[in-house]
User: What shape does this take?
Amino acid sequence: MQELILVTWLVVYMLFYLLSFLSGFLIKSVDWIEDELKGSLIVKWPLALISGLLIGFVISGSDFSNIFLAAIVAQVLTGKVDKATHGLAIAVAAVVFLLLGINGLKLEHFAIFIIPAAIDELKFTGTYAFLTLYRVFLKAVAFLFVFAGMPQYFIGIIMFDAGYILFKFAQDKIASHVSQ
Assistant: This one.
């Protein structure tokens, strides 16, 4: 019986990490359509909707919900929600987590994460431009939580970034199919 509980727990964890990865991939695809293709593909709407659903489920069910919630609030507060598709994704995520609740909301963790999440939204130039490109502040703070016995924050945000980065690598291949 204990093995079944352990396996179930592991599957649930992996599911939320997978949702994190997929939401990163889809968010980057929407960004690409909006920024590079000037919003020309209608598929951006269902992609934004699905990414919002995934993020909402992550916030509602995972034990790393605080970092995702902080990232969303930081994006809103810094004015980075500048396209209707971004607004749709955030609105859908909000509806999901308002209906289902927020798993393990810890205001002290949220407060710790919101500051680096907001700094990550700033645009650095010159020598510090890499800070904008790699958004290191939130990941660095999440990494510190590993030493406090809470690796889920770091793993969750790294999975999101892995999806985001994978789309960056795939976008040239996708672009060649879109232009045909």
User: Anything to note?
Assistant: The first helix runs from residue 2 to 35. Helices lie at 2-35, 44-61, 65-77, 84-100, 107-120, 129-134, 136-146, 152-178.
